UniProtKB/TrEMBL annotation:
<dbReference type="GO" id="GO:0016491">
    <property type="term" value="F:oxidoreductase activity"/>
</dbReference>
<dbReference type="InterPro" id="IPR057326">
    <property type="entry name" value="KR_dom"/>
</dbReference>
<dbReference type="InterPro" id="IPR036291">
    <property type="entry name" value="NAD(P)-bd_dom_sf"/>
</dbReference>
<feature type="domain" description="Ketoreductase">
    <location>
        <begin position="9"/>
        <end position="185"/>
    </location>
</feature>
<keyword id="KW-0560">Oxidoreductase</keyword>
<dbReference type="InterPro" id="IPR002347">
    <property type="entry name" value="SDR_fam"/>
</dbReference>
<dbReference type="InterPro" id="IPR051687">
    <property type="entry name" value="Peroxisomal_Beta-Oxidation"/>
</dbReference>
<dbReference type="Pfam" id="PF00106">
    <property type="entry name" value="adh_short"/>
</dbReference>
<protein>
    <submittedName>
        <fullName>NAD(P)-dependent dehydrogenase (Short-subunit alcohol dehydrogenase family)</fullName>
    </submittedName>
</protein>
<dbReference type="InterPro" id="IPR020904">
    <property type="entry name" value="Sc_DH/Rdtase_CS"/>
</dbReference>
<comment type="similarity">
    <text>Belongs to the short-chain dehydrogenases/reductases (SDR) family.</text>
</comment>
Length: 302
């Protein structure tokens, strides 16, 4: 197979000054993409500014013969998001790829997480996604081409203690992904989610000694393919952790159909209702009419 390249493509990568985003930037740049390396730097809580990380990645890309510019705006505000996308237009005249990867972390249990720490994480991960997708999407539609990659997490799919702000944000990516995939389908714009796992500074304090190697370089080829013209998926989620790549999806049990129900009957039939055998999975087959399709499946017993 010939090398998949990104010549003439322009990619905006948020949070690209470190960790996973840096790895995506280096890979895409090495394959010919021109990159906006977005990162305001700063500590893991996401406050404070340090222009160092974004500029260092730009230096690395240029030293390897690639093309990149740094942008230290924050994704946490609509103005910041607009400025990040504008940087691609100002420097390179176009935007083909948007990878929303920026992330901060603030811990606190449901009993004591502060409103400030809740908002700070929602603003970067969840609102931040909207802040960059919103200005990029119409430009991509006008060009008839775009690839958008959002970042979720195992904590978003299945939950984790002490990070309700993070879990809600990462689950919220699924809603954005679905809508952008549906609205972008006729416009040449594809949107997918990466569910990564890698030892970066986000793993600080977590014991990873029992795990296989978890380099960010194991995730970047998956994101690279999702960002490429040849990507055949949209509205999907790919998990990439420690070398294992898989599809994550939302499924429904086949369900039980009755013309009417009582509370007692729900209790009596709860095992059949929850039976995961032969599940319904929406997505890859196209976004079919959910109600009609699932109703027919329940009636037909398939
Ligand atoms: P990281 O801390 O190394 O990198 C995140 C980058 O985002 C940092 O450089 C940070 O400065 C930047 N950032 C923070 N606030 C920003 C803002 N307002 N605007 C723009 N950039 C901002 O962490 P990472 O592990 O590389 O994480 C990258 C993404 O992957 C995050 O969205 C994270 O939630 C997600 N993720 C990571 C893992 C993992 O195992 N590392 C697992 C699941 C999800």
């Amino acid at each position: 197979m010939s090398e998949l390249r990104f010549d003439d493509r322009v990619a905006v990568i948020t949070g690209a000054g470190r960790g996973l985003g840096r790895e995506y930037a280096l890979l895409l740049a090495a394959r010919g993409a021109r990159i906006v390396v977005n990162d305001p730097g700063g500590p893991m809580r996401g406050d404070g500014i340090d222009v160092g990380p974004a500029e260092e990645v730009v230096r690395e890309i240029r030293a390897a013969g690639g093309t990149a510019v740094a942008c230290t705006e924050s994704v946490a505000t609509p103005e910041g998001g607009q400025a990040i996308i504008q940087a691609a237009l100002d420097h390179f005249g176009r935007i083909d790829i948007l990878i929303h990867n920026a992330g901060n972390v603030r811990y606190g249990s449901m009993k004591d997480l502060s409103q400030e720490d809740f908002d700070a994480v929602i603003d970067v991960h969840l609102r931040g996604a909207f802040h960059v997708v919103r200005p990029a999407f119409p430009i991509m539609c006008k060009a008839g081409y775009g690839r958008i990659i959002l970042t979720s997490s195992i904590g978003g799919l299945y939950g984790n203690a002490n990070v309700v702000n993070y879990g809600m944000s990462k689950a919220g990516m699924i809603g954005l992904n679905n809508v952008v995939a549906i609205e972008g389908a006729a416009e040449g714009v594809k949107c997918n989610i990466i569910v990564p796992g890698a030892v970066t500074r986000m793993a600080d304090g977590i014991d990873v000694s029992a795990y296989p190697p978890m380099g960010a370089d194991l995730v970047s080829p998956v994101v690279g393919w999702l960002a490429h013209e040849s990507c055949s998926l949209t509205g999907e989620m790919l998990v990439s952790i420690a070398g294992r790549v898989a599809r994550a999806f939302i499924g429904e049990s086949r369900g039980v159909y009755q013309k009417d129900w009582t509370i007692e009957q729900v209790g009596e039939r709860i095992d059949a209702i929850c039976d995961p055998a032969d599940p319904l999975i929406f997505g890859l087959d196209g976004h079919v009419d959910h109600i009609r399709y699932s109703f027919e499946r329940a009636l037909s017993g398939r």
